[in-house]
Design a protein that fits this description.
By secondary structure, this protein is of the alpha/beta class. It contains nine helices and 14 strands. The relative contact order is 0.16.
Length: 313
């Protein structure tokens, strides 16, 4: 699959906002995020269906696909940023025109439930997308400088990003000896597993796998990691980056359980590839943007991850 990079974002460009999964509980966050983007010199266009509800979904499947298609076909829109995750993106995969996406490559940003769309865009279109901050989650108020700086550097510059930015408050650990490189894929572990074995999962060959998750107790992390490492092609993965698994304690204090750390030890301890623990990406305030589809290098001895190419042109 040929990798397709979107054009970089310039001041004065239009940013489109959509809700492919769930709607923000606090709709004022949408307006606040619009003001934030405008304060930086961008214009904003909102999807015609944002703010709608259908249970836990941001409107019907048809409404959410309409907004997604609309933003990709709109020639004025240069970047599409999702309002939030939640649930609902996987329901859209068999309804999306991937030819339309392929013919209109744009910056596409989100994480969590948005992983399903990002992996499908990579598998079907070769499109580089960004596991990065979302409008109604990260850009509505009190924007975290670490998150902000890395994200805008990724989407506004056609220069390669280089070494990952260390979060001095987070201890990131590196394991293994040899340097490895490959195109980074993955995202939210549960959502990646939801597309595993379908036509919407990218090939694992020569890839660096990045995973993170939130509110998954140890037995569910166990199940998901087990599924991941049983996938056909897992032996062709070059390296693994494990982000932050937030709120992963077993909620039932009386229940017999392994700890999340024990689960990671069971699975990661079997790996014969380099891996990274506690990388600053996930459902956290200080969130390092990951451009899915570009080449990265893991250097365990140097305790470094390097982005080897720009994510935009």
């Amino acid at each position: 699959m040929k990798i397709v990079k979107p054009s970089k974002l310039n001041k004065g460009d239009v940013i489109g906002l959509i809700s492919p999964a769930s709607t923000p509980d606090d709709l004022t966050r949408i307006e606040k995020s619009v003001k934030y983007f405008e304060s930086l010199g961008y214009k904003v266009k909102t999807g015609k269906n944002i703010g709608k509800y259908r249970g836990y979904l941001a409107g019907t499947d048809e409404q959410r696909v309409e907004d997604l298609h609309g933003m990709f076909t709109d020639k004025d829109v240069k970047a599409i940023i999702c309002l939030r995750g939640g649930y609902g993106s996987p329901r859209l995969l068999d309804k999306i025109s991937f030819k339309l996406i392929r013919n209109n490559p744009k910056i596409f940003v989100g994480y969590s439930d948005i992983t399903a769309l990002q992996m499908a865009f990579l598998a079907k279109c070769g499109l580089v997308t960004f596991a990065g901050p979302m409008a109604a989650v990260d850009f509505h108020s009190n924007v975290e400088p670490y998150t902000e700086e890395i994200f805008w550097a990724m989407v506004t510059s056609a220069k390669k990003f280089g070494d990952y930015r260390l979060d001095p408050e987070r201890e990131t650990s590196f394991y293994g000896a040899k340097e490895v490189q490959g195109r980074v894929i993955g995202g939210n572990l549960a959502l990646f597993c939801s597309v595993a074995g379908t036509p919407f999962m990218p090939s694992l060959k020569n890839k660096i796998m990045m995973v993170e998750d939130v509110s998954e107790p140890p037995y569910r992390i166990d199940r998901l990691l087990n599924q991941l490492m049983l996938l056909k092609g897992w032996d062709e993965v070059q390296g693994l980056i494990s982000g932050v698994f937030s709120d992963s304690d077993e909620p039932d204090k009386e229940k017999k359980t392994l700890t999340a750390e024990e689960v990671f030890s069971d699975y990661y301890g079997q790996l014969n590839i380099p891996y990274v623990m506690n990388f600053p990406h996930g459902h956290i305030k200080k969130n390092h943007t990951i451009p899915f589809g570009i080449e990265v290098k893991i250097s365990p001895k140097k305790k470094n991850i390097r982005f080897l190419e720009p994510a935009v042109i």
